[in-house]
Amino acid sequence: MADTDGQAAIWLYVRPSLGIPHFLGAVAIIALVVHLGVLGHTTLLKKYFGGEKLKAASISYVLPSHS
């Protein structure tokens, strides 16, 4: 299959032994930053790890009336 959009040309300038580990490392760092951001701004986990009892979720239904 021919490379029609030029994406493979990056490997002419960057060795795969250097580029691939850096790319995967950047993906891992971004994933950790996103997860820490979500965990740091969630009140549910702070309460849970603090030993507080969590309340069960309640659902209320509104049924349409048939006239």
UniProtKB/TrEMBL annotation:
GO terms for cellular component: plasma membrane; plasma membrane light-harvesting complex. The chain crosses the membrane at residues 20-45. It comes from the Bacteria. GO terms for biological process: photosynthesis, light reaction. Residues 10-42 form the Antenna complex alpha/beta subunit domain. Keywords: Antenna complex, Bacteriochlorophyll, Cell membrane, Chlorophyll, Chromophore, Light-harvesting polypeptide, Magnesium, Membrane, Metal-binding, Transmembrane, Transmembrane helix. It is a single-pass type II membrane protein. It is found in: Cell inner membrane. Gene3D superfamilies: Light-harvesting complex (4.10.220.20). GO terms for molecular function: bacteriochlorophyll binding; metal ion binding. Coiled coil: none annotated. Antenna complexes are light-harvesting systems, which transfer the excitation energy to the reaction centers. This is Antenna complex alpha/beta subunit. It comes from Rhodomicrobium vannielii (strain ATCC 17100 / DSM 162 / LMG 4299 / NCIMB 10020 / ATH 3.1.1).
